[in-house]
Structure prediction request, 413 residues.
Amino acid sequence: MGRGTLIYCGIDWAERHHDVALVDDTGQLLAKRRITDDAAGYQLLLNLLAEHGDTEADPIPVAIETSRGLLVAVLRSGQRKVFAINPMAAARYRDRHGVSRKKSDPGDALVLANILRTDMAMHRPLPADTDLARAIAVLARAQQDATWNRQQLANQLRSLLREYYPAALNAFTAWQNGLCRPEARQLLKLAPTSTQAARLTRAQLRSALKRSGRTRGIEAEADRLREIFRGDYAHQPTRVEEALGKQMLALIRQLDAACAATDELAKAVEEEFAQHPDAEIICSFPGLGVQLGARVLAEVGDDRRRFTDARGLKAYAGSAPVTRSSGKKHYVGRRVVKNDRLNHAGYLWAFSAIKASEGAGAHYRRRRAHGDWHAQAQRHLFNRMLGQLYHCLQTRSLFEEHLAFPSSLAAAA
Prediction:
């Protein structure tokens, strides 16, 4: 049996405790409570909701300012709608109830409950993604963060080597991924200064390359490295050079850990992503491999009701332009408020698709000829392919080049 009146719940969350407020459809406060951030507190919250008519078939909607954490996981069990309200939006709603700018945790919980009471249709509940999709999201985001962290450490190492060890930079420039490669890290551990590098023999260089896992071209590579290391370079004073070498070794240890974490997470992403039914559709698109496809799935999710149409997905990704028009002013430009992770994945996707797809490449060149900058043309291509991805996921169909870019292929023919 359903509730006689509509009831809404707002939760102001904190690290150790959470404030809860329940209001009815007239705005009257029915209950307020402070709960602890543990299993006992979560059970107290569920009991409070049950006392006011919360059932599995007719759950009370909840507004909270976060989409993560154990509290949100408890609330999302069953068919309950949980709304993650942006803190900036909640602050604007707070100003509607008073001009004194007063603030309290119980008051914020009441504001969140009233947001659902007055404007629930204007906010979206958290998507009902499957557990597999949510697990892929955790791993894909962690792998992306690890990749960024690895690159940051590599940039720090490169800046340090420029100060005292230019021979290492010259030696590793020819390698893809440069300082992140195991060969480079192994050689830097073997010779942390340019003086020590100049003393390395061919046998030592060959052994270092083998320890790093290299199996091909070892002799030629050892000769190339020996010639570079024995070149004529400027040097720091001996004691300063040794101190910089110790600093470099400390950075190398951090880079080793970052590279290992990145590789382990990439393997975990590959294993989980292969089990998802959308993986085949996503990877059928040119420019999308396992890792990048997993990042796209992580942000798009597998809840088909999350976006009402392709335009909503494009706005969420930041690929669709935004229009600001007022009086005589009219501006059309890129979106600033967007999902940054999906937008970054889209940039890499479009960059790879230009060469992987003849139609995508023709579309990019046409946009450039139209006057777009490089980033604008790539964003336009990402916008188009994102709409195609939305269609393929909705219809459970694979990407087909002749349907995606018919005019481009006809012109090329």
